[in-house]
């Protein structure tokens, strides 16, 4: 049938050209971006799978960095312990030397000068060694679960994939104390007054229990209380906080903080109350046993030998734990890198362009596009033959 208004051949060529141009555009997009899936319409399921894989890959890569950071922190800790071990060995050598009666008291005094300086440096290293601004050897870092010295290393892409290690307080400090002194007892017309004095060196987590009469108040020392320039400033801060905590508990007793002391005064003259205070130290330090050692005489030197052996064993135990965790973290990091590599390869199969296939598709669609364009031109010329029927 010869018609003009409806050119079926032209419509067929147009539709074929539209579909081919869509395929051509898709092939060019894949080749331009390097991705097989550029929008959800390309492969909805594949897009969802590759998105989940991307989350895993980025998480795994960050976990690798986390593990390496953890190893670096533990290496810093062990490095400090190596120097502490060296100093303890030197202190032991001095103790052996001083235990020999060929030396006078003056000679032993010279040995003790070095001995005390080394002991102080061991403690200073414990208190001052930091990593990323955190003290890592004094046991003051508090985990979210309230554990002091506990570190959780995130070595996985998902929640709960952690390796934990607790770093002990390796130093020593003066015993922190909270001591009551009752100045005035129960007497007619006189209000009882008791003074609570804080001394020593407190650490975060130390708990101070104060009992006035039958009521008890508790205050836990926080890290924010220990940011002063010296121990005296910190004690004053703790005293102020303790006054606030106890003042809300003890009715009928006035509480005033001044410097490192608190004064408790009965509101009513002649009123008597019992007082008691205790403080619980979370950790006095693994090397607490060397704090009072000297080498000033034979007896002290022999005692120092025994206690230094204990201290060296404690550091060796701590270093062994560090080495075990560092080896574990190293293997964990290697495994994470391997998993990330294989997951990336799996995602590539889903998401990335197969250039051999896409370039073949581009060549095919370009050829078809040229042919379809030529056929459309021919189809548009077909109605011209109808004019011959109208020629008389």
In what range is the share of β-strand residues? 15-25%
Tally the beta strands: 11
The CATH topology of the largest domain is given as f41 fragment of flagellin, N-terminal domain
Question: Mean pLDDT, nearest integer?
Answer: 85
Note the run of SSEs as H and E: HHHEEEEEEEEHEEEHH
For the largest beta sheet, what order do the strands appear in spatially?
A: 5-6-10-9
How many distinct folded domains? 2
| Coarse morphology | elongated
Q: How big is the Rg? A: 40 Å
CATH H level of the largest domain: which superfamily? f41 fragment of flagellin, N-terminal domain
Q: Percentage of helical residues? A: 40-55%
Q: In the CATH hierarchy, what is the class of the largest domain?
A: Mainly Alpha
Instruction: Tell me the number of helical segments per DSSP (H or I, 4 or more residues long).
Output: 6
Distance separating the two termini: 20 Å
What does this protein structure show overall?
By secondary structure, this protein is of the alpha+beta class. It has two domains: 52-172 and 289-342, f41 fragment of flagellin, N-terminal domain (Up-down Bundle), CATH 1.20.1330; 177-283, Immunoglobulin-like (Sandwich). 52% of the residues lie in helices and 15% in strands. It has six helices and eleven strands. A four-stranded antiparallel sheet has the order 5-6-10-9, with helices on one face. A hairpin with a 7-residue loop joins strand 3 and strand 4. Helix 1 (8-33) packs antiparallel against helix 6, helix 2 (44-98) packs antiparallel against helix 3 and helix 2 packs antiparallel against helix 5 (298-351). The chain is elongated. It starts with 7 loop residues before the first helix and ends in an 11-residue tail after the last helix. The relative contact order is 0.17.
């Amino acid at each position: 049938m010869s018609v003009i208004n409806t050119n079926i051949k032209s419509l067929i060529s147009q539709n074929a050209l539209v579909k081919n141009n869509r395929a051509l555009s898709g092939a060019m997009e894949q080749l331009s971006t390097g991705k097989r899936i550029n929008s959800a319409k390309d492969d909805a399921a594949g897009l969802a799978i590759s998105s989940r894989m991307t989350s895993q890959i980025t998480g795994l890569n960050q976990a690798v960095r986390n593990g390496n950071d953890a190893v670096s922190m533990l290496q810093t800790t062990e490095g400090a312990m190596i120097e502490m071990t060296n100093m303890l060995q030197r202190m032991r050598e001095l103790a052996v030397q001083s235990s020999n009666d060929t030396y006078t008291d003056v000679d032993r005094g010279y040995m003790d000068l070095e001995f005390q300086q080394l002991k102080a440096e061991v403690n200073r290293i414990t208190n001052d060694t930091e990593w990323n601004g955190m003290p890592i050897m004094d046991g003051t870092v508090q985990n979210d679960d309230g554990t002091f010295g506990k570190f959780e290393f995130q070595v996985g892409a998902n929640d709960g994939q952690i390796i934990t290690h607790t770093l002990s307080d390796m130093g020593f400090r003066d015993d922190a104390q909270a001591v009551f002194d009752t100045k005035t007892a129960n007497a007619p017309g006189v209000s009882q007054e008791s003074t609570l004095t804080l001394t020593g060196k407190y650490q975060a987590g130390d708990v101070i229990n104060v009992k006035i009469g039958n009521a008890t108040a508790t205050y836990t020392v926080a890290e924010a209380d220990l940011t002063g320039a010296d121990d005296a400033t910190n004690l004053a801060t703790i005293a102020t906080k303790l006054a606030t905590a106890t003042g809300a508990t003890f009715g009928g007793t006035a509480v005033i903080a001044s410097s490192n002391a608190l004064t408790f005064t009965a509101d009513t003259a002649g009123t008597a109350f019992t007082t008691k205070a205790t403080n619980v130290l979370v950790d006095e330090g693994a090397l607490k046993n060397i704090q009072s050692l000297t080498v000033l005489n034979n007896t002290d030197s022999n005692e120092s030998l025994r206690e230094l052996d204990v201290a060296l064993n404690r550091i060796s135990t701590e270093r062994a734990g560090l080495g075990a965790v560092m080896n574990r973290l190293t293997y964990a990091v290697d495994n994470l890198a391997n998993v990330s590599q294989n997951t990336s390869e799996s995602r590539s199969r889903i998401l990335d362009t197969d250039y051999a296939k896409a370039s073949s598709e581009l060549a095919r669609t370009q050829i078809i596009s040229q042919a379809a364009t030529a056929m459309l031109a021919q189809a548009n010329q077909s109605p011209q033959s109808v004019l011959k029927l109208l020629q008389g």
